[in-house]
Specification:
Length: 329
């Protein structure tokens, strides 16, 4: 692999031919190395020496060095009474929690457990991560919180796990908080670290200046409405929307729609408001140009006059605007 040359990670004893590691190896970064080993006789003079080459493939086996990481939303909407199943073993689905583990095989197989919080109301399917209602809730509170755990199924080593807190919001039937800007938009550069601020949302409840309001991200979608990971968070009290992951404009869409709910805490009955903001991912010049697949050799006549076309090469750059210039070196 030209981006991960084996010569940096391995060395060979010139006398014994034993191949040794010389740098730590990360299977999640590169799982196969192909080394060209050259054996040369020691004849004299040196110009008379002969050699042979052998391609050696080194496959990196997985170690359970990664814990599961939750990428699903940490807030969801409680199904309304009209949609709640009164019967049926599984009840009404609330959400699906999902954690990604970069390890392979059983080291990367994830199961889920409901740890604490309203376990009498919610059920978590161990293998699918689907959260369902155990029973109908006639008079819901403004919000419910549960703690879930994702654990890998490692066999040959200690298992790794990660906890997450999930907030389930009950929709209000009456007037709810109103957002100051119902079509807010922001932008953020790609490759910025998680926690980079994008914008701030603010909502208030009419005629109730003392209303305590919290904010939650319940959904993130990309172009075409495609579901995305939890790429954005919002500070529950301050309303500051920030990145939850490093964004890559070339790997994902140019913009995301982020659904945010505002809820009133100091109320006996649920009061909710909802808005959707659009976040544009700005480009950085982080991707080199690449040539299209074309022949690497061309033939010309020795008497070809100056200015005649020999070949036309094409390259592209995923960054914007992607304008290229060409030169020989």
């Amino acid at each position: 692999d030209p981006l991960h040359p084996g010569i940096l990670h391995f060395q060979i004893n010139p006398k014994t031919g034993v191949i040794l590691t010389q740098l730590p190896i990360d299977r999640e970064a590169v799982d196969t190395f192909r080394l060209t080993v050259v054996a040369t006789d020691q004849a004299l003079p040196e110009s008379s020496r002969l050699s042979a080459e052998k391609l050696v493939t080194v496959i990196v086996e997985d170690a359970n060095d990664n814990a599961p990481m939750f990428v699903s939303m940490n807030a969801a909407i409680l199904p309304t009474p009209q949609r709640t199943s009164y019967h049926g073993r599984d009840g009404m689905q609330v959400m699906t929690v999902f954690a990604r583990d970069l390890d392979s095989s059983t080291n990367g197989l994830v199961t889920y457990d409901l740890v604490t919080g309203n376990t009498d109301l919610f059920r978590l399917h161990r293998s699918t991560g689907v959260v369902t209602l155990r029973r109908y809730i006639p008079d819901p509170e403004p919000k419910y919180q549960i703690s879930v755990k994702a654990t890998d199924e490692a066999v040959q080593s200690d298992r790794k796990s990660t906890d997450a807190y999930i907030t389930v919001i009950a929709l209000g039937s009456g007037p709810g908080p109103v957002f100051e800007d119902d079509e807010a938009a922001g932008s953020v550069y790609e490759n910025e670290p998680p926690g980079t601020s994008v914008l701030t949302v603010t909502a208030s409840l009419r005629d109730q200046a003392q209303a305590e309001i919290e904010y939650y991200v319940t959904n993130v979608t990309g172009e075409g409405g495609r579901q995305a990971d939890r790429l954005f968070d919002v500070d529950p009290r301050l309303g500051i929307v920030s990145t939850a992951e490093v964004l890559d404009r070339e790997a994902g869409p140019d913009w995301y729609d982020v659904e945010i709910y505002a809820i009133v805490l100091n109320s006996a009955t649920p009061h909710t408001g909802q808005t959707k903001i659009r976040v544009k991912v700005l480009d950085k010049n982080d991707s080199p140009p690449s040539f299209q697949e074309m022949p690497h050799e061309y033939s010309v006549s020795e008497d070809l006059p100056a200015g005649q076309v020999v070949a036309t090469l094409r390259a592209s750059d995923p960054d914007t605007p992607g304008t290229l210039s060409y030169a020989t070196a």
